[in-house]
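User: What would this chain look like folded?
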Amino acid sequence: MNILNFSENIIKLRHKKGITQEELADFVGVTKASVSKWETKQSLPDIMLLPRLAAYFDVTVDELLGYEPNLSREQIQKIYFDFTKEFAEQPFEEVMEKSRQLVKKYYSCSPFLFQVCVLWMNHATLAPNPQMQTEILEEAARLCSHIINDCREIPLCNDALLLKASIDLLCGRTQEVIDTLEEMLNPYHYSFQGETILVQAYAIAGQKEKANRYSQFGMYTHLLSLVSGAVQYLSLHAEDMDSCEETIHRIDCLMKLYSLENLHHNTAAQFHYQTAVICCIHGRLEEALDRLKKFASITDSLLECDKVFLHGDQYFDAIDPYFEQSDLGGNLVRAKKVIADSVVQALENPVFQPLESSEDYRKIKQIFLVRGESL
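Assistant: Here's the prediction, encoded as structure tokens.
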């Protein structure tokens, strides 16, 4: 809602109270014609009249104007996923401008602004040129700073701080990232024991279900972090095949043990992709192709589903409520077409040039080209 709903609100409130335009005009001290103009959107009342009108109808000034400074979690979800669809189907600049207008409208709603930053970061690569991509990331970084400075919710501020660091990294501001996160993520801080302490507290308090759920979710997130860390480790040690082989072996065992390809498709796909890169660097083309097939299979299965949500499994059987309660409800953060197009770009990595003569490699690329066109 916005201030333009004032006219509809006045009509509804007047009818609810059972009074005429003339009776309202007499109470406020204006003419009947003035009230008529308010209700037909021809004018707005003097700002000094708003408290009197609000008191008369026993509502707040915000309710009178139809102004909602904050959005519900459900509203944020809907707006976010509407935009992911629009970014995939409509002109990029038009969708960006529409999202900017909503930022101005809900500038005091920090949870919404945070998701807009996520939205912009995930779709900046769709911008027509590199300069615009950078401008959008810079805009998202400024919005993160606004959240950090104005939001009173410490968890959200921390999330905004980490998101801004991710954006700074994309923009090449590595020293800023280091300055921001080095002390915050110091593993010697006592805060790193917070999860264990909370689980113990739940258990002692007799809240066994909460203790179980939080313990499971902690293991789940650390499992994903371990695999994601291995992806980075492979990149850092790309020239050392012995180190990479040991890492790949250990993570393969871990992924099989926890059925990670079914539990969290994206993390598993990223690992197979990075492993393919390492194998190509060292001329192990058959292994590289095998990993790309796994990467493609996992990603394609995502695109085949009508809806995709983060979820647990038979072992992690208590964590689904965490996804359901998150701002985006555990949904994919990008439209399927955007994902398909990004896979095509990933497969264009120059490191895979030795595979260009492979029919299987060409088929993999073709699958996602067709997917992108059909979505």
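The chain has a mean pLDDT of 92. If you want, I can go into more detail on any region.
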